[in-house]
Amino acid sequence: MNPRHHPRRALVSAAVALSCALLLGGGLVAGAAAQPKPAAPHKPEGEMRWALYVTLAPAWFDPGDVAGFITPFWVLYGLHDALVKPMPGNLMTPSLAESWTVSPDHRVYDFKLR
To answer: Could you tell me if residue 107 is inside a domain?
Structure first.
């Protein structure tokens, strides 16, 4: 069935395709315009319970005595806060430090605590 032999069928097919494209495109634009405003960020409330199923060595509670493997750091992150800490999208995010300055030789860091 060559479209040259059936010009009406080709015209109807083109009209249907154009109508579908307009309806779908119009629906997407209308749907995008009708998006609600994002809600305000949720602030956590209440308490958080944290459980570890390991035997805790007393040295794990002191950051100066802990061995350099991953398990004690789970405990340290839960008990101690850092001046700055890495977060998604930012290598140095304020935590206990509100702001900080670094000397030109990178040997002295001054932290302003919150």
So the answer is: yes
Domain that holds residue 93: 58-113
| E strand residue ranges, 15-108 | 84-87, 90-94, 97-102
Q: What is the pTM of this model?
A: 0.37
CA distance 26 to 102: 54
Distance CA 25, CA 23 (A): 6
Tokens of 38: 């994002």
Q: How many domains does the chain have?
A: 2
| 44 falls within a domain | no
Do both 103 and 64 map to the same domain? yes
Q: What is the pLDDT of residues 20-73, one digit of tens each?
A: 666 666 555 555 555 677 777 777 788 878 776 777 777 777 777 777 776 667
For residues 79 and 93, is the Cβ–Cβ distance under 8 A?
Answer: no
